[in-house]
Write a structure and sequence with these properties.
129 residues, Rossmann fold
Length: 129
């Protein structure tokens, strides 16, 4: 393959969901994972992924707190972040995340895997273009 695969960081405290996404994305992308928001921010600073898929509700540092922390980093501020959640994501909460310029979109953890993979592909193809 001529081009190196894009790097995707999955940040989710649910180990089974992390592994599911890793399997779904690993044929098309290089994939690394982190088990919570703080670990995700640390990993993003070192690995500088092309995209981050992040859960909203995590112990310690929430998805929103991690999103804001990424914006503070010189190398991480421009990394697009897709927000995923297993709970009902009301429009008010969506607006809170949309304020952050690195929030590239949202999806439900219950969405079909082909939809999630397609969302990742579209985001990597169009974010910042």
């Amino acid at each position: 393959m001529d081009k190196e695969l894009k790097l995707v960081l999955i940040v989710d405290d649910d180990k089974i969901y992390r592994e599911l996404l890793h399997c779904a994305l690993s044929d098309l992308f290089r994939v690394i994972t982190a088990e919570d928001g703080a670990a995700g921010v640390r990993m993003a600073k070192v690995a500088l992924p092309d995209l981050i898929v992040m859960d909203v509700m995590m112990p310690g540092m929430s998805g929103l707190e991690a999103l804001k922390a990424l914006l503070q980093g010189e190398g991480t501020a421009r990394i697009p972040v897709l927000i995923c959640t297993g709970t009902n994501f009301d429009p008010g909460m969506r607006n809170i995340f949309r304020i952050e310029r690195n929030c590239a979109g949202f999806f439900s953890k219950t969405a079909p895997l082909d939809f999630i993979v397609g969302t990742v592909e579209r985001t990597l193809g169009g974010f910042g273009a």
